[in-house]
Amino acid sequence: MDKQIRSRVSLLNPVHFLALGFGSGLAAKMPGTFGTLAALPLVVLLSHYASFSIYLGVTILVSVAGIWICGKAADDMKVHDDSSIVWDEVAGMLITMIAVPLSWQTLAIGFVLFRFFDILKPWPISYLDKHVHGGFGIMIDDVLAGVFALCVLHIGLAMI
User: Fold this and answer.
1) If you write DSSP's letter for every residue of 23-52 in order, what string do you get?
2) How far out from the chain centre does Cα 47 lie?
3) CB 10 within 8 A of CB 66
4) Alpha-carbon distance 155 to 87, whole Å?
5) CA angle 50, 64, 118 (to 5 degrees)
6) What stretches of the chain show up as alpha helix (H) in DSSP?
7) What tens digit of pLDDT does each residue of 108-130 get?
8) Is the N or the C terminus of the chain less surrounded, counting Cβ atoms within 10 Å?
């Protein structure tokens, strides 16, 4: 993030704090990966201490609220989908781990699968990434990457 954009955001602003993945999006390199890593404690906490319906409810809330959070942060930055906005990665990782029995192995595989789909953006993710704008556009490609990773992870678990 360049200095001009950085001057338009503050971690003291709750919207910016969330959009920047609790500050993880400020990483100099690979902010999306750091944003995904920032989601892991939330995944573990919810997986261990919340029912399935609460996990699902929080995931939906994070995803839907993310449309506004990411859109507002992008407007404040005056840049569409700056790489420091990583709330979409938090949502995508939560989606990836829906109904997955949690272990360090499934968490690592889910992380790798989500990053794979988020970085490579196979169709239709790539189409949405290029053609849908605003907060919804920022969120939808990562939501879909999370759905792809979720499906592959569940298929893999079913085959074991």
Assistant:
1) GGGG-SS-HHHHHHHHHHHHHHHHHHHS-H
2) 17
3) no
4) 26
5) 90
6) 3-6, 14-19, 31-49, 52-77, 87-96, 104-120, 125-131, 134-159
7) 999 999 999 999 999 999 999 99
8) C
What does the longest C-alpha to C-alpha distance in the chain come to?
Answer: 50
Instruction: Please list, in sequence order, all residues whose beta carbon lies within 8 angstroms of the beta carbon of residue 138, skipping any fewer than 6 positions away.
Output: 66, 67, 70, 71, 74, 80, 81, 85, 88
pTM summary value? 0.95
Exposure on the CB side of residue 101, measured as CA atoms within 13 A: 4
Angle ∠(50,110,72) on CA atoms, nearest 5: 75
CA 81, CA 78: separation in Å to the nearest integer?
9
Structure tokens at 21: 């993945």
* Structural domain spans, the chain: 3-159
pLDDT per residue as tens digits for the range 96-108:
999 999 999 999 9
CA dihedral 145, 148, 151, 152 (to 10 degrees): -100
